[in-house]
Structure formats: structure tokens, C-alpha cells
Amino acid sequence: MDVLITIVQFLAVLAAVVLVHEFGHFATAKAFGVKVNEFGFGFPPKLLTVWRKGETEYTINLLPIGGFVKLEGENDATGPRSLASKGVGTRFIIIIAGVFMNVVLALLLLTGLFMFTVGELEVTQVSSRSPGSAAGLLPGDRILKVNDEDVSSLRQLTRSLGANRGTDVPLLIRRNGEEQVLYVSPTSHSFPHNAASGVSVEVVGNLVVTNVSPGSPADRAGVQDGDIITAVDRQAVDGFYALTGLINENRGRQIEWQILRDGASQTLYVTPRSSPAPGQGATGINIHVAGAVRVENVAPGSPAHSAGLQPGDIIEEVDGVSINDFIGLSNAVNRRLGETSTWTLQRGSASVPIALVPNVDALPYEASTGLTVEFLALQKTPVNPPWEALAQSVTWIGSAAVATKDAVASWLADDGEAPFAGPIGIAQGTGELAREAGLISLVPLTALLSMSLAFFNILPIPALDGGRLVFVVLEWVRRGKRIPPEKEGLVHVIGFVGLMTMLAALTYNDIIRIIEGYSFLP
Q1: CA nearest 195: which of 117, 278, 297, 85?
Q2: Is 22 annotated in the active site?
Q3: pLDDT (tens digit, 9 = 90+) per residue, 196-219?
Q4: Pairwise CA distance, residues 268 & 230, whole Å
Q5: d(Cα 483, Cα 205) in Å, to the nearest integer?
Q6: Which one-letter DSSP state was computed for residue 66?
Q7: What is the pLDDT of residues 487-500, one digit of tens each?
Q8: Count of CB atoms situated within 10 Å of the CB of 390
Q9: Torsional sign, CA 416, 422, 427, 430
Q10: What element of type H or E holds 199?
């Protein structure tokens, strides 16, 4: 089903870009009295005629990699309504119209996007006893900034939080229309959510202090490396999230800690700070959790839910491999994506075997905080005036052009990936982007592809619009003396064969990339 959805999304994006391009040729040809014999989506052979109106046949063709408008007499000036019988200026306008329409489409899409939508990340789930839960995040919160930096994509959020593991990170959120700052502490000790299986887990057991920062609240209270924290504020703790939750609830207030040191119980008093030093948490300690992997949440409709996992289950083995931390669980799951794996659970005093098929197309989750987020486009009254939105569109297109130039330069210097993809690669990227950022992400993608098509088509390559313009310009330079039609036609045929060869090579590379597990998203 996901593959089918990706194909439909890709064809919708491609159709928008191609049909707008060909409409430019079609409309100007009609306006200048040139006969249009066929308007086709895809390249021949022809599959079916969708419609016939007047002298024009509208068709769908077998290869969905482009489109064409078949004009009367493209190289034969004998017919009164042929393209070749028209003057240099008319032919120039008809040929350049496709590129012009692609530029217009990109600007319209982006201007509308910047005028009427605001992209935000909404929290859809918070794993219980996770850093996100401890920070006070709730489903429905909109994450606006991390460390005073705007975030507008899931991967940007992931990178920002992942780069600050073990520290208190300020998040600017909007809740019920009001903005506020919360502090979340991304952890490298446990990872609560495995997207492929749909299960949130916590490693539970002894909370062993592995490092105490000098001068920190824990250091001043007498906490030492090797201490085992058993209770905070008179509440037993057996996992990292329970500990961080109690710490965050009591910032700025002295609380009682029960610890075990060399087998003896001691009571210490720690005051978690509200504004920790860079690189430190509220108390200044690092924790190692040695114990078992316990299920905290099971996502509805997930493979774990279908297999019968329940909160409180202890995951003992996956495919015969003992599980004692999330990394081990994640590795075991990822080895069997799309295949049946056998899990052994401890449920109460019973040992329970289950069969689970991890989802190969799992959505990404921000594991270090226990948050599940998705990209939203909030439909609103205009948030930017048209002229500002248009300026943003031009800036966006300019940035995309510079990024493309840099990628090509890096590729030519043998220092980067080839910045090209064929239809299969574009389809893969379309599906990945839609799954991660939602359907609204297809708007800037369509704009980018439209600009790319405009740029590629204007290049002086035979068979492309730019190649045909070369012959029109040469005719103008030679004061109306045309290159013989048979020679021009031969050049375009050779160019078309070259383009099809390049397309076949790109398609081959796309298939190899997919086989090797390559993702188009960084």
C-alpha cells in the first residue's frame, strides 16, 4: 500500500510539473495560429486517447517520465499553420513558453505556501516517564524553537536535540495559543521508542552514578561515582525517566535522595538547579542503568500492538538474543524489518512467546526525548502579504540554486554524491518526504522540480527546448538563413538518444541505491 501511495504522489507531482510546461507550448502555439496535433503526458508508445477536441488529441503514454506537444510542421515550413512557417520571434516565444510556465508555477506554489501556511511541529505522543514527559510536554504542543533556533522539520529537531544529549535544552512551544519555554534533557542512556515495532521501552534496574560534575548540586550534596540512587523525594526510582521526572518537578527545591554506597543506605539532600551549566543537567550527574527492558507504551495499530505486547512486559529475548538495553532491542528489530521475529516476554511470573513483524516503512521518531512529532501546515488567513511571500519565494529558489551548484561542484571534485536522480529516485524521495513531513511538503518539492525542469530544459542540449532555441538564434544571426531541416532533425534525434541513455543510467543508479538502502533524506 505504501508503494502504491508513493507512486500516486510521484505521478501527481510529475503531472503538475510536466503538464504546466507543455501547456506553455500549447497555449502560445494556439495563440499564434500553430496547429497542435497532440498533447501527451508521458512518452510513447501511446496507451490511450483521453479526449479529442477539435484538431488536438489528448493522450496518456506508456513512459511517465515527461510529456510533449506535437506541433504541425516543426521542421517543415510548407504548411500555413506549421511551426516552421512562423517567424523567428514567434518560434522563440513558443519554445521558451514551457520554461517560463515552470518558473511561474514554482513562484505561485511557493508564494501561496508562504502566504497561507505556517509549518510547525506538533507533538502527537509523549512516552510516559520520558525526558519529554518530565519536561512537561503534552500532545498538541507546537515546538517552535530549540536553543533559540527555529525548527521546521523533524530531522532538524532530531539533530538539534541529538547534539545536546545530557544537557537541559530550552524548547519554545506554543500551547493553547500561548508561548512558553520548557527544558528537556535528551538522554543517550535509553531510547524509548522503536518506530519499526511501535513499542516504547525503558531500561529499568539499578541507577548507577557514573560521573559527578565538580561544583554541581550533586557534588555539593556528597553524591559520588558508583552510588546507586534508589529513591528521590521519598519515591522509589528504577529507571532514568522516573529519576529525571522527579528532578525536573523539583528544580530550585531541596529534595531527599536515598542512595546505596558500598551496600549501605544513605540520605543526601540535593537542590536541582533551574539553569544548569553548559554540558550538565540540573544535578550534574551521569547515570548508567543496568537491568531489564520494560515496555512502557504500545502504539495503537503498531506491529507490537498486533502481536499482543502490553505495558509492563519485560522483553527478555528477540530471536534467541538476550535483550538488556534499547540498543540491543533496536539492533535485533532492525535485522528483521519486514520479517517475522520471535520475542520472549516476561509477563508477571509467566514466560510469553510472541511473533512480531517489524514495519519496514516506519516513520522516524525522536528517540532521545520520547516524543513523537509530525509536521503540520496550519491553514490560516494570510500570514504574509503577497509581496513578502513572493520575495521569500525568490530567496528560496535562489538558495536552492546555490545548493544545487555546490552539490554539482562537489560531485565534479569527486567529493560528494551525484546530485542527480531518475524517475525512480525522484519517486523514492517524494515518498520519503511525504511520509516524514506530510503532504504539504510536496508543495516545495513540486516547486523545486518545476525550477529544475526549467533549468534543465533551457540548456543548449539537442532535443531540449534550449537546443531548439540554439537553431532559432542561429537563424536570426544568419539573417533568416535556416539550418537545413534534415540536419536539425538529425541533431535532435541524436540528442534524444543521448538523453534516453542518460535516463537509463540514472534509473540504474536509482535501483542500486534502493537495494543498498540509500535514503534521499539526510
Answers
A1: 297
A2: yes
A3: 455 566 667 778 887 888 888 999
A4: 12
A5: 83
A6: E
A7: 888 888 888 888 88
A8: 17
A9: positive
A10: strand 199-212
